[in-house]
Amino acid sequence: MSKKCAICGADVNLLQSQKLGDGNHICRKTCKKLGLPDFEYEYSDLERVKAHHAEAALGVKLWEQFFAPRLMETNELRKLKRFGKSIFVAEDIGFAALKENRYKYLFWGKTEHICVYRLADLRMYDLEKSISSSGGKKSKTTFFIRFYFRNTEGLYTFRKQFSREKCVKVIKYFDGLFGLETTKSRNVRQSAVGDIKDAFAMAKAAMEEGIVPDHSKLTPDDFERIMAKAGKIKEGDRTKWREKADAAFKEYRD
Hints:
Distance between the termini: 49 Å
Order of helices and strands: EEEEHEEEEEEEHHHHH
Mean pLDDT: 82
Largest sheet: 4 strands, antiparallel
Structural class: alpha+beta
Radius of gyration: 19 Å
């Protein structure tokens, strides 16, 4: 049975569509490709999907105006900080970016998909680890940094894999930006949300706490409440980072 894409109206069958958490479907060929792979469509409603697509479209414009020129910058104050292949920080304007390059074939037909965030809105950046084993072999531990941004309607949380040593460096870097001291316990603990490892687990935890009745309705506010239950996280002073981002947005709009 065919369905219509809730965004573009195209007719799609089961294999051509992505079902959202609220029961709507969107086409994989066009509309799903507007977002980043870190965005979890299956747990999001249509409004949040649209917000993420708008976020990604704005991200490309902000990247072109602010980040791209800084890639070749020699001035230390304007040079981008880079973590892995996809996370960039522009300290002088108070922005961070999550970037993905896509190619139609091998290295041909490149398109960029980007979300840009205010550093002042970085609510949490902490260590997560996943332990896996198969066939009786020794278990393998994989380390990630979970990022969570407040005041974000679209892709407000995502995680990226690094070595354990790199995770510690990333945490120390952001702690330094916000005037926080990196403690030993902070370096080795799992994320402040405990066993919450992905959107479904967060939703499950929310339902168990009675915060939301349906995993498809998990919101940033719900996540904030889950984190509050997990323990207080010091944020440091974000004033200068807020001011830098406000000035950059004003420049963009002007």
